[in-house]
User: What shape does this take?
Amino acid sequence: MTAILELIGNTPQVELKKIVAHLPYNIHIYAKLERFNPGGSVKDRPAWHMIQDGLKRGLLTKDKIILDSTSGNTGIALAMIGSALSYEVHLIMPANVSDERKRICRAFGATLIFSDPLEGSDGAIIKCREIYEQEPEKYFKPDQYNNPANALAHELSTGPEIWRDTGEKITHFIASLGTSGTLMGTGRYLKRMKPEISIVAAEPDSPFHGIEGLKHMASSIIPGIYDEDVFDQKIGISTEDAYDYTLRLAREEGLLSGQSCGCALAAAIKVAEDLAAKGLAGEIVAIFPDGGEKYLSTIVFADQEMADGAGI
Ligand code: PMP
Assistant: This one.
């Protein structure tokens, strides 16, 4: 295996301190920092697993181009893996994805094809399907929304790591929803280990949200891998709360985080406050999918620059 790909997984888990100072002593919130994957996000895991699965099944052969629709992080992961394994990678993404993400994909040598920004990630999915169907023999399409290997990557790695790193004491697991692979795979593993563990989905509370990488399921194309039986509860989070917690993570915990980390944290705090109101203890683990670098030009951090008087 190429050395860089050996670094995927086994990410650190840290306990939050100041943001959760109002909680009772017997409730802890831990963040699993997926930014420590070599491609910088949680999506390295499924991307690598889907590629390995494609190789094993003989679907990905040397002459094929890797093609997928992606809001960014899967694209970065596929581009990195494509570079390491010498595959051409074509990515369809909404034209309004942040410049940093586009540039990272291009830096790894991927070709970008843009879909209508007004149609969001669904527009990218549809365009990708059209391109694939014109010349299916030319491409390997991991199809992260419908490929069981996406969720399986988490069932085989993210879940066991959390179980191990919490000393088997985890009570609640929280992940935000994009393809839902993280929640499905990790949730399945943890439920198998201990059915009482509560699996919680954190979701944007509106179709017109601004949390990059996430889906509001009711108004989206539902991913084929999405299964409501895997989780116990879904919590809707406003874009404003997600942004607010994202900025606080950087300012108060020293964690430069992506917006979906703020979303997962907002849900974790709601779970923690519910437990506190009932006098219950909790060991809560939230997935922090990526770091903040790719979002520095977005309103989350740019607003603060304005407030500092530096202008944008
Ligand atoms: N956060 C970010 C920043 C993401 O890019 C994604 C994936 N689109 C997620 C969260 C959600 O992960 P999953 O696809 O496993 O649901």
About this structure: Residues 3-41+153-302 form a domain with the Rossmann fold fold (CATH 3.40.50.1100). Residues 42-43, 71-73, 176-182, 212-214, 258, 260, 289-290 surround 4'-deoxy-4'-aminopyridoxal-5'-phosphate (CB under 6 Å). The radius of gyration is 19 Å.
